[in-house]
Sequence to fold (172 residues):
Amino acid sequence: MRRARKSAQKSTWGASDGGLLLRLQLPSDPSLLCTVRGAVERLTEAFGFSAPDCRAVTRAVDEALTNIIRHAYGGALDRPIQLAFRSTNGPQAGKNGRGDGLEIVMSDRGPAVDPEKLCGRELSDLKPGGLGLHFIRQSMDVVEFKRAKGANYLRLVKYVRAPGQAANLPKS
Fold:
């Protein structure tokens, strides 16, 4: 797969189509999650991620969408969600094994979220649910949230690594 590269290191958070690979716009209907998972899985495979990283990115996107549907939209089936998938370079492209990355920016029009409250629950608290944010942070190299122009934006980035290479990137 041929990938476009962004010339700037800093993310535009969806302001530009530079490196755009895929854009999805869907209603907040949980029955569409399977379709999105399939698209993300195929995109990550074509991008060159290892099988475990493909599963990690797919799981993170699925968890984030589930959180949007459940928490931002209260289970409503007809609210808008947008996803943009772009190629991006790591903070030190070409050095230390960092290079091509996949940036995913999700947006919703739900109520404003307090980033301080986006902490998830403790892993030792054994009960169903509530681990989505933990899985997202564990799966991705960059996790950032912001509110702008009446929308919530979640930015996820995963960098492609050589087989056996550890992730030594700071979590955002």
Residues 51-72 form the longest helix (22 residues). Residues 33 and 49 are 21 Å apart (CA to CA). The beta strands are 20-27, 80-89, 100-108, 142-148, 151-159. Residues 20-159 form a domain with the Heat Shock Protein 90 fold (CATH 3.30.565.10).
